[in-house]
Amino acid sequence: MKLLVTGGAGFIGSAVVRTAIADGREIINVDKLTYASNLKSISSVAHNPLYQFEKADICSAGTMVKLLAKHRPDAIMHLAAESHVDRSIDRPSKFIQTNIVGTYQLLEAALNYFNTLDGEKRENFRFHHVSTDEVFGSLSMHDPAFTPETRYAPRSPYSASKAASDHLALSWFHTYGFPVVLSNCSNNYGPYQFPEKLIPLIVISALNKRPLPVYGKGENVRDWLHVDDHAVALLKVLDYGKLGESYLIGGDAERSNLDVVRAICSLMDEAQGFGPHEELITFVTDRPGHDHRYAIDASKIRNQLGWRPSVGFEEGLTQTVQWYLANQAWWQPLVKERYSGERMGLGTSKRTV
Ligand code: NAD
Ligand code: TYD
After folding, report:
1. Which atom of ligand 1 is least distant from the CA of 14?
2. Cα–Cα distance for residue pair 108/69, rounded to 1 Å
3. For residue 344, which ligand has an atom nearest its CA?
4. Engineering a disulfide at 159: which of 54, 134, 229, 309 sits with its beta carbon 3.0 to 4.6 angstroms away?
């Protein structure tokens, strides 16, 4: 299979690229290389004959049309997006542009390409739109988990832009008969995650003995899934998902933020041989509109596609902390170059330590 992946130099996209190549698939990675990308995350496959890279912006329909005509992929997996909620609160415009307009331009180009296909190539073509559980909004502790039938209720500029892109993708299925599958996943963690997201931010701050910023009281709950498990799930949805349907992917690992931060602190105590790192925990101004809880009912993908997570959260978190400690050359330049003058991850927002 020749798979065109958008956003393959990002956190999840790079895991998909590594997994798909190990699986013997041919990959065309289309990425604009924004601040969130890192080609080092795919250095292990960069010289593999199955891998090709195209630096391009999904918002440019003309470029997408040309790339599709050039590579003639069997499928597209669309991950390119602006992905950090805090940045969407501070400056929403790029989220509207890439996540909504970019998805629209890509759908137009892809439909145009699909309409040139015939026979088996047309029959088997798939467009997999990769999305998030955040489109469903905020749960209380007693609410049942999200299911594919849960009504969309996004509450941040990021989740609203992703919700809009999900609706566009499914409307291309219903209106134009374009073969779309959709997935909505919970919070990912693991190696190669940009150090503005909670887990790498806390590991790196703890290593540097800096305050560990916990928004509000740290009671918000996220469901955590190892990124390599997500990559396997995405390829299953691509291969076997029913067209026009959505698959919810989760890790069965709901944890409060404070529990996650404390778990990282004890792993750091062990790794460094001193502590307690918990003394660095600092409660800071809450994120505006902070969704309280996300939870996934993953029974559809488990029962219909036979997927379940293989890495438990405690095991995955231990490996992830060890990875960040052992791979400082991967993240040091990001922290130095991209955050000069700013506190890591807090950008221009009011959530100062
Ligand atoms: P990321 O921010 O790490 O990577 C995004 C990638 O997209 C980067 O390589 C970036 O250069 C590229 N990109 C951004 N704008 C582009 C554009 N206009 N044209 C081409 N490329 C562009 O994101 P991630 O965490 O890997 O998330 C990937 C996808 O998965 C996103 O669609 C996100 O909404 C979704 N998702 C993420 C999570 C999570 O926990 N991180 C959970 C569920 C779903
Ligand atoms: P994040 O990694 O930004 O993912 P998302 O907002 O997509 O869930 O944040 C995960 C949780 O951690 C979220 O509830 C916000 C919280 N958080 C903090 O408490 N402190 C931080 O410095 C960051 C970045 C996030």
Report:
1. 26
2. 13
3. 2
4. 134
Residue with tokens 């994120």: 287
| Tens of pLDDT, residues 296-334 | 999 999 999 999 999 999 999 999 999 999 999 999 999
Q: What gap in Å lies between CA 353 and CA 346, rounded to an integer?
A: 9
Q: What architecture (CATH level 2) is domain 2-189+225-252?
A: 3-Layer(aba) Sandwich (3.40)
Distance CA 164, CA 199 (A): 27
Yes or no: say if 215 and 284 are a contact pair by the CB < 8 Å rule: yes
Ligand 2 binding pocket (C-beta < 6 A) is 85, 187, 197-198, 201, 213-215, 220, 222, 257, 287, 345
pLDDT tens digits, one per residue of 221-270: 999 999 999 999 999 999 999 999 999 999 999 999 999 999 999 999 99
Pocket test for ligand 2, best of 88, 214, 257 (most atoms within 8 A of CB): 257
Structural contact between residues 146 and 299, judged by C-beta atoms closer than 8 angstroms: no
Looking at residue 108, the DSSP 8-state letter turns out to be H
Give residue 147 CA to ligand 2 midpoint distance, Å. Answer: 23
Lookup: tokens for 246: 């959505």
> Which ligand minimizes its atom distance to the CA of 105?
1
Strands (DSSP E) along the chain, which ranges? Answer: 2-6, 26-31, 51-55, 75-78, 126-132, 180-185, 187-189, 212-215, 221-226, 246-249, 254-256, 281-284
Three-state DSSP at 251 gives coil
Whether the predicted pLDDT of 147 surpasses 80: yes
Are 296 and 146 in contact by the 8 Å Cβ rule? The answer is: yes
- Closest C-alpha among 289, 294, 226, 215 to residue 254: 294
Instruction: Tell how far the Cα of 258 is from the centroid of ligand 2, in angstroms.
Output: 11
* Residue 337 alpha carbon to ligand 2 centre in Å: 22
Q: Is 286 a catalytic residue?
A: no
